[in-house]
Structure formats: structure tokens, C-alpha cells
Amino acid sequence: MAEKEESKLYFANDKSLSQRLSDFLRKLLHAFFDIFYVQYKASNLQVRQYSKQRQKLYHTFIMLLYTLQLVSLVFPPTVPEWQSFKLFSDIVSIIRGDFLLVKLNLGLACYIIALTLTMIPFFSLIFLYIKSFKKLAFDIQNYKLTLTAGLAFIKNVSFIPFLCIFTAMQRYDIIGSVPQYENVSSISFPIPYVGMFSIGFVLVLVFLALVENTFQYQQFLTKSSSGIYSRAHSKIEALKLLLSTALVFSHFYLQDTQNAIHLLISFLIGFTLWALYSLYLPFYQIFTNFTHSSAYLVLMWVSLVELFSKVLQNSTMVFVLIVFVSPCLVIIQWDLLHKRKEFIAKEFNKRIIGLDNIYKCELLIRNYSEEYLKASKMVEKETEMVKLKNEIFKVFKYMKKRFLKSNIQAVWEFIFAFTLLKDEGLARVKLSGTASVFDIEGSYLYYKYCRFLDDFSEDYLEEVDFVKFRKIYDKAMKQDKKTSQLQFEFWKELSSEKPNVGNLEKIAYKLHDNLKKCKRTLKKVTLQYPNNQLSLKLYGTFLLEVYNDNMKGNELLSKAEHEKKQQEMRSMGNYEKFNYFDDNNGIIIISGERDNLGNITSINRPASEILRLSENFAISMNIANFIPPPINIARVHNKALARFLINSQTTTVGLPFISYFIDSMGYLIEVYLQVRCVALNDCPFFLAGVKKSNLPREIILYDGDTILFNTRGFSVLVGYSDTELCLKGCQLSSVVKDFPKFYKNKNLTDVYKYMIPQTVNFISLKFLDVKINNYTFKYLIASDNQDEISTWNTQQAQKFSDLSELKTFVTTKINDTLPIKKGILKVSPAKKNLSVKFNIEPEYFYINETDFRPGKSPVGKFKDAAAVKVPVKGKTTESIEDIDKDQLEDKDKNVEILDLKDLKSGVLRKKDEDNEEDNEDGAEDANIVKKSGASVASSAQSSNASFTSSLEAQSLLSGVTASMKSFKIAFFLTILIVNIAVIAMIIYLKLISTSYIDTIIIKDLSERRVLMANLTTFARSLELLNYGMENYNEDFLRNIMINDIYTYKNIVNTIESKISKWDSKTKNMYSNMKFPTWELIDDNTIQMFGENIMDIMKKFIIHATALHLTELKEINEKNEDLFFLYRNGFGESLKAVNDSIGVFTREQEKITDKILMIVLLLALSAIILMILCFVAVLIPTLISVESSNGTVWRLFYLLPLDLVQEMRTRCEERLEMTHGVEVDIREEIQLFKSLESRKDIKMKKKWPQILSRISLYYLISMGLFIFFYYFAYENFGSILRTKPKLINMSGLRTFSTNAAYYWLQELKYSKSSFSYLYETSKYRLSSSPEQEIFNALTLLQYSEDSLVYKSLSHTGKTQTHEDYLWKSQCFSPNCELLKKGLHSGVLSFIGEIKDLECQILFGLNPDLNNILNKKNELAYGEKMLFDMYEEYMTTTINYHINTVIWATSAYCFVVTLTFFILYIPIINSVKDEITKVWRLGRLIPIEHRNKIMNAFKQAKGKK
Length: 1503
Hints:
By secondary structure, the chain is of the alpha+beta class. It has 46 helices and 14 strands.
């Protein structure tokens, strides 16, 4: 039956997302397991033998230390007069370590020590985990101190002390006190929040202790030198660590507040763990159980005594009960454990149903195992060993029925079979196929022993090795089949008149990858099995028919034929056991996994011919489909298989040697059958070896009078028909006329004569009943061959070795004098006069009956699958015969292994990793085929090598490679330079913002003139107050004045510190230019001085400070300080200060424009560079790619039709002959007619996919530059230019408000003797007070309009700003001007100033107190808005800078990342696609390739 398969291609991932995620998580877990497996191997290689006495002393010391540490957590008892026993309490607590260091004022040192010793193993573990996950080699011995010793120290000695110091630090950081320590100040840490992080250190500590507890112990006699630490598993020990952690937390958080609850918790913890250790005895030595249980017995007793002391309140009694009763309890515990062990043994012997807990089952297994080990050392106790073995298997069977299946159970069965029974095959089966709830410890042990088996076995058992070979071989066959299908699709599409170019390219790329993968897979199989004719033949035909490598293909096929003949010669007369690697034998591999139980996973050609169906069709079918009834139902048969896997005590499946199959046509077939159960890694399999019997007889399987199945010739033999008929469902009495008479007198030993109807010929009949388990198979055998009939009641073959003298096989007589060989099967000398009978019981062979070394091939056996070492470069490969001879000479003698400790270090080595693929051409197969000098020379001249490595071919590919390389370099440099330019722009913008925030102190400069005006106004007000002209509050004036003086002084200091960073013009104005100042000297002399602005400001501070300290009565026209402020406050000095602000802002604006222009030029340079890269590099690269792609595809498009058809036919034949796939040719295509029409085929363009990726970079870059121009250059530059103007106008508004009031006040007293006009009559300003009022109001109106209506009105316009301008912003209950907002207040103030001016000019004397209050109110509101503007501008500048920095950083990161994940892959992909298509030229036959090479040579001079 041929398989019909569609010739459609599906390019999809085989695994789902959940499967890939599951595989990734499994990989993470196995990487963690690998660390401790390597450590386990290293520890097995370095076994140190210690005396039992020494082990017990060390263990006693550790547990005594642990006991006192536990007791210290419930000390001291809270009873009166316990101070007299304080020394005893301190001694117990000091044992804990952390208490001692804190008492010595070394708490901080203790914390650091604990942290260091905790984190070193943790980081070592993390480092090793990363290495393990990445499959990097590491030597575990280098981490012996940091990891192995560190984990052991944490778990055995320092777990509780470290836990205490971490918890104490955490409590101290939260609560601030730790009553458990007397010197609590010593644990204070200088770094804040360290205590909060201590909870993380606690988790790390517990994690490390659990890791040590789970992974670092020996299980079940696997390391007898450390047997004192061996235990069943770690669940009780893990519970101990978690409960100890809870006890420590209770000690620090409950002992001082809820002491009774703390004692109750410690009592329950002690009781729980004492009961567990005493009841289940988890350790294999009674002494170890005693030490562990005693620690918690003492804890339980001390906690109980302290609880009892709450009632008694007697310190002496508490001391006596603790000190003197505890040792008595420990002695009682020792006796209790011994009685407990005896009680368990008695109960187990009575009834197994009492095993209600898995621990009890483990105890029983351990007990039986110890007895088995003792009996194994005595020859006379062989019967007792068999009994004990059956009892142990009985317990295992009970465990599987009673409890959930787990990895731990599989591990127990494995250790029993491997360590005690020395049966590696059975051990593999027991360890495989376990389905369990996730258990980290069980999973690790399961993984560890699976790895251990592979690393231990120098040579697999032959059955296991064959399964391994078939898995690899079937994988290679699938890959070869897929490659052949792709090749067929390629040639089919290429032969079309109008080929689908896109689909053809996709097929070509897939075909190249599969060719490479297939060659690598086949090479791997051939390297691992260099003498297997199947692998050699498959690889040879692949090279010959697919790869077009005739030289190497013929060599491999020749070697395969030679190996086949050698195998036939070795098989002649060698019936010692069934040879699985003999391709003449039928082999069926049946899955033992739960989800695929009974399904055929692999079948070879002889077996498929017996079943009369193709190998591909048989895969995944259930073997029950080919088994005769009544067990041909898959559910029934699978149940029997599952029962065997669960309860088997051997790997041999007990079936009759002569058995029967039903082929795909429904005929009964008689075969010789042998079934073995094997396991590879964690997968169980059933390995069925079958041979067709070829005995001259015909058989019917019947039920009552109904025929169920018959052999092909039965109808002809009994004369029922002249042709072969399937008699299924026919009446047996109608086929065999005398059947009722024969059946009535049926005797299994009788042979009946039956005369064929209408003839005079007789045949012989014999009835046969075969029982398998509870099923009975009824057969009727017929034959007319006298030799066959004569053998029916004689001794029959029961295994393949018994067939050595049957005539149906060409045999060589075995020498009876040879000694009995030992191996997988026990072989006896050849038996004579053998014939075949049917009503026989099968002979069982147990692997454990042999004494071969586990993992070793039996001495003297040839093993076809032995691994061959790859020869060193430069050396020739040894012959197989030499290797075999050396291997046989190096075989060790059989040594009994009583324990895994007996393994030598050389045995426990890791298998070499799979060889990586070498170069595709030339000498890559030198390690597989032993070549002569001539063959080597011919291979060196292989056409494949010359085709792809010629100068013409290399010139084509090197042109593409050079173009791609130059493009990658140029494009990367472009990205790099553009990124540098962008970063430079950020730096310049950052410099501008830093300069504005740091050096451009426009707010201070603007506020300075306001303060000068304020100080002048306050000085004048104090003078008027002295004259009694105004009723001002002197204290109020002086307080405001001193605040302004301090503010002014800070501004002057700031200017002095920043002036060195300003431009030269502004610096010159402040330091060198002279401005007039007027001073009063000797009460009546006024003198003018020329001073710079800095000196003027400093003098202003000096005179203002002196005036503030002057008494009120001395503040008059004769006061020098008053005159300086009065004359200069609104004079030339103030004008110079105002001018300096304008100069400063203009010069800084010029500098800002220059820097922004540099930034803009950088951006333009980057854009020009990108354009140049596109024009000068990208476009030529695209042209080169398109040219090269067209050249390589013309190589195939210009092939003649007959050649393409020939290649297509060759692929069809390979699919049909090698893989049994009949290609569906119903869908015919229109073939091309001439090569001229092929020249018009347009290749698929490569430039769109390259340009689409590259355009992404240009789009991102253009987006950044556009964003940068509008956001950074325009908006940010506008803000930088606007800020000085905005701040200046805000300050000018406040200054104008103060100036208007000042000159209004001067106007009021202009005609008095103390007016400005009289006091500075000769040296006053030329303008009048009326003019100054007009100027001040004009400036106030101008600044207000600029801030509210004109160019500056939109800057800083937030909701808060709007509220200040238009809504009520009162700051006091007496608010008048700001009721309707600041803008309304300014307009009202201007109106009132004008009104008061008019009153004064008309001779009235208005009161100015009201306008003074309004002025102060308005000035305060303006000051608040002034600060708001400054804060807004600073925030906006920072926001713009941060946004640009983040956007630019994201751009640099994205374009750099996309270069590696988008641009490099697409460039490499295009280059690889062209190279792949070129390398597919090896598929073209050699003679046509030569024509192509000549064409290339002729075009060599062309570009």
C-alpha cells in the first residue's frame, strides 16, 4: 500500500506557543539541575572514606550545636529571680553566634559577615546557572569553597544565627528596638533602609538552605561512605527549615510582647518535627534519626517547661527541669527509636495494607534492601534473595496503586534495579515514562539518574542502542524525505511555462537549508554508526542522487555493501541472540509513553514487508491492529502493555517464540517473535524482533466453527480453492469437511490425516491451543510436508539460538565445547535434533541472571553500533577490525558492583557533544569513509567543490559580498555620525539651558532695581515720619527695609560670582565703565564721584544698612546715608542699572542665536550625509544585488527542459523507492517549450525589501529632525529669547509702581523746605516730579500692555496665570485693588495716582496712606506673578531639554537597534539568498555544470 501525499509545502512551526514555552521552562529548570548533577558526579569521583566513629562524632557536634541554637530562641524564661541563672542563659544564647558578637559590640560586623557569607554562595549559584543555561563549560571544583562549602556551612552551622541577625536588623529598622539583644546600638547601620532590605536577605538565606537540603544529599545507598547523611527524600528536612524560620520570627516579634504565644508556637514546632522524625525515620541510620529528633524533643520540653513556669513561677524548678530532665528524655528517645524500628518491621510482616503512608513503604523497602544486600554476600541464600526481590516488587506495586505516581517512586525503583539487581535495562525502564505531579526534588532526582545512566554507560545495551539508532535514523529519513519533496517541488515549478517566481524562490531557499540540514543529520548518523549499512546506504544515496556528489556517494555505497556482506557472514550460524542491527531482521519499535502507548514509532523494511504495508503508513498505527483476536483491541492490548511497564521485573516480555501477525490484507502470518522492553532517557519502548517462519505449513485461527483468519495458502492446500483466498468469516466445517469429527476427538498430541475432497491426496492436521495470560488462541495447522509433520511432537525452538540447526536457515555448527557466554541473554550450548512444536510455554530470560558489568557489552560480542572516535586531523582512520580488536583487548573483567561508589572516575565521564558541521565541500567526510590515495585525490577534484569554489563563481559571490560589506560599513558610519551629530545638538541645547539657569540671572537683575526703588522710598518715608508729615509705622518700615537690604545683598553677591561667565560687553559695563554718583560730605558739601555699577550697588547696601541703624530723629537732610539713597535711588545710578539689563539681554540673545545656528547646521549636515549615503552607497548596492540575483537565477531558467524533467523524475523515483511516497501527478502543469521564452522571465526584485527597511531609518530620522526643528529650535529658541524680555517687563511693572508712588509723594511736598527740589537744589534731576510721575505711569502702562495684550501675552499663559490676571487674588482681608485681578488692580492704581496728582496740583493735601497700602498690595501681587513667570520659564526650559534628550536618546537607541535587528539581517538575508541559489547549482548534473562554467569563463572579462 503506497502512501498518497500531496505535493504541497507548508512552512510552519511544528510546535505551538505553549509547547515552546514549556520547553523553555524545562530548559531553565534543567540548567539549574545541571549544576548539582555535575557536583554530584564530582563528589562520586572523590569519595573519602571516614570511619563511622568519626562521622558520628562530627554529626553529634553539629546536632548539639543546632539543639542549643534552637533552645536559645525560647530563652530566657520569664520567671522571677531568673537573674541568678543568667550565666546559664547567656551560655546557651552565646552558642548562637550572633548573640555573642552583638554582646561584644560587634553587631555591625556580625551583619556584614552574615551578608557576605550568604551572598557569596548565592552569586556563585547565579553565575553557574547562567553558564549552565548557556551550555558553557565550568569546573565545579573551582567553586568548591564558594558554593559547596558555603551551602553546607549555611545549612549545618549558620542558618539560625544568620537568620537571627537579619531579622533583628529588620525589626530595628521598623520598630527601633530589639529587646532580645542587650547592646542593641551595635546593630545600627549607617546606611538607611538596610533593615527593610534584610527581608530579601532572609529569603535568599532560606532559598540557599532549601537548595542545599534538596540537592546536596545522597539517596538510598548511592554513596555508602556518607551513609550517615543518606535519607529517603527532603520533605521533612525542608519542613524543618521553614518551621525554624517561623520560630526565629516568633522569637523577635512575639517573645517580648506575646511570650505565651511564642512558647506555644515553639512547642508545636518541636512536637511536630519530633513526631515526624520518630514516626517516619527518614534517615537510613537510626543514629541520625536520633540526633535530629532529639534536638526538637529538647525544644519541645523546654517550651513546655516555660509554659508551665507561667503557673509555678519558680526559677529553680525551671532550671532543674531543663538541665536534668532533658538528658533523661534523650536517653528515652534512643530506646524509643529502636522499638519503633522493631515495631515497624513486625507490622509490615503482618499485612501490607497497613502501609497507609509513602514513608512507611520506603521504610519497608529499605529494610528489605538491607536484608537483600546481606543475603547477596552469601551463596547459599539465593532463594532468600529471590523472595526478598519479589517482596520489594510487591511493595512497589502497592505504592503505585495506593499513592499518586511520582518521580520519587520511579527513582526508588531505578535505584533498586540498578544498585541491587545490577540490571541496567530494567533500571532504565523503571526510570522512564513517569507521569507525576510537579515535585522539584523528585524531578531533580529523576533528571540526575537519567543523566547518570547516559554518562555511566560506556556502551549502551544493544537494545537501547538500537532504539537510539532508529530514533536518529528515522529523523534522518524524515529530513531526507522532506528534502526530496522540496527538490521535487523546485524542479516541478521550474519546468512550468510561467513559473511563480516568488514561490520558486521560497522553495529554493527552503531547499538549500534542508539540504544543509539533511547532510548534517546524515553525517551525524554515519559518524555515530560508521559500520551500519543502513546509515551508510542512506548517506551514500543522498550524496549520489540528491547532492550530485558521485565520488563520495559511490564510496559510501561501496562501503555499505561491504558492511552488509560482513554482517551476513557474522550472522551465519550465530543464533546466540537476535541481532537488531541486521537489516534482514524485522524490527518494530512500539511506544511505551502514556499518550502514544502501543503506537508504532519505527518499523524497518523487512517488518513492513511481513505486515504488507509501507513503512510510512505503519507509523503511528497501534500494534493491536496486527495482532490476532481476542487481544486485537487497542484498549485491551494497551492495558496489558501498561501493566507490564508498571509491574515488570524483567525487560523480556513473556510471549510464545512462534507467534502470529495479521497483515494489512487480512491474512495470518506465522513469525518468530521476541519482545524486549527498553528505555532511552525518559521514554520507554517495546522492541519487537520478528522473522517470517517459512515453515511448510498453513494455519487457521478459528473460534467455534467460524474462521477468524487464515494463512494465504490454506484454501489451496485443503482443496477449497485453486487460488489464495481470505476465509475470514467462513464456516470451518465447509472448508474442512471432516472438521466436526476431528474436533470432537481433539487431542493436542494427535495428528490427523485428512483426504482432500475429490482427490486421493492426504494432508495432516493438528489442533493447537495457545494461552497468553487469560486469553486462549485456537489454531488448526495443516501440512503435506513429511519432514515438517515429523517435527510436530518433538522438542521445539524456544528462542533464536535454538534455530541454529533448522534447515530453513543456512547455519554454521556451533562447537559444543565452547564455554557458555554471558551477556544480555544466557546462552546454552547448541541443541541437536530440534524441531518446532506449538503448545509450549515461553522461556524467560532475566537480565539480572548475568553478572556482566552494568553498561558494558558482554565480552566477546561484536557490537555493530559501537562509537568510533573521529581521527585526529592528519591521521588515517583505523580499520573496523583493528578497532574491534583493541576494544576487545581493553575490556575489563567482570567486577561485581555493590554500590555506585565502586564506579571508577573514568566511567563517570560526560559524553562528547555532537560534532558540529564541518565545511560542506572537500574533506568533510574523511572521518566516515576510509579512503585510498586515489579516492582522496578524486574527492579533492569533486565537481561540487569546483563548481562553488571556482574563480568565476567566487568572483560573482565576492562582488555581492563586497557590495554588502561596503554598504554595511558606510551605513553604520552614517548612523554613527548622525547619532554623534544629534548628541552634539543635545549637548549644545543643554549648554544653553544650563547657561540660562546658571548664568543668565535676569530675575535677580530685574529685581535689583525694584529693591533700589524700595529702599529709596523707605528712606524718604522715614524722613517724612521724622518731620511728622506722614503717619507711617516705623517698625513696619524698618522690617521691610532690612529684608530688602538682605535680598539686595544676596543679589549683589550672585552677580559678583556670575559676572566672570558673562560676555565681555556686559562685563565691561559692570566693571570698567564709570557712572556719576552723588554724596553728601561734612553735612553741606555735595560731591560727584565716577564709579562702576558693582561699586554703586555695594555702596547702596552700605548706606542703606547704615540708615537702617540710624535713629529716626537723625534721619534728616543732613544725613549722608539718606542723601545717598535719596539722590541716587532714582538718579543716574538707577538709569545705569536699567541700561545694563538691556545690554545684558541683547548680548545673551546674540549668543543664543549663534548656538542655535550651530545646532541647525549640525542637523543640516546630518541630513546631507544621509542623502549622500543613499545616493553614493545604497543605490549602487541595490543595482549590484539585482544584477547578481538575475545572474544566479538565469543559471536555472536557461536549463533545457529535458534536464529539468530528468531531475524531476529522479526526485519522484527517490521518493517512491526510498520513502514509499507516490507523488500525486494528477495536477499537470504546462511545460515551457523553448529557452527563448525563459529569457523574458522577470526575477523577483530584491530592492523593495531592502529599501523598505532602509526607508524606515530615513523616516525616523526625518521625523526626529522635524520634531527637533519645531520643538527644539523654534519653540525652545523662542522661549530662550522671550524669557529675558518677560522677566524684564515683569520687574519693570513693579519698579514703575514704586516709582509712581515715590514721585507722587515728592510732588505732594515739592513746595516744602525738605522737598526733593530744595534738598538737591543744585544737583537734582533735570525733570520735575510731574514729569517723573508721567514717565513712571507710562512705563507701567507699557509693561502691563506687553504682558497682557502684546507679544509677551501668550508666554506663560496657564490657568493660574489667568486667575492672577482676571480673578480675585487677595492676600489679606483688607484687599482693595486685587479684588478683580491683577490687571484691574494696575489700571485702578494708575487712575488713582493720576487723580491724586491732580488734587496736589490743585493745591489739595491728600492723605497718601491709602495709596501706599494699595501700592504695597499691588507690588506684592506683581511680585507673585513675577515669581510665577520665573518658575514657569525655568520649568518650560527644563521640560523642553528633557523632552529633546529623551526623544534623541530614544532615536539613537532605536536606529542603532534597528541596524542590528532589521538592516543587518535583511542585508545578510539577501546575500544569503543569492548564495543559497548559487549553491543549489550542485543539484545540476556534472556535464551541464561544465557548460555553465565555460560560459562563466567566456564572460570573465565582462563587468
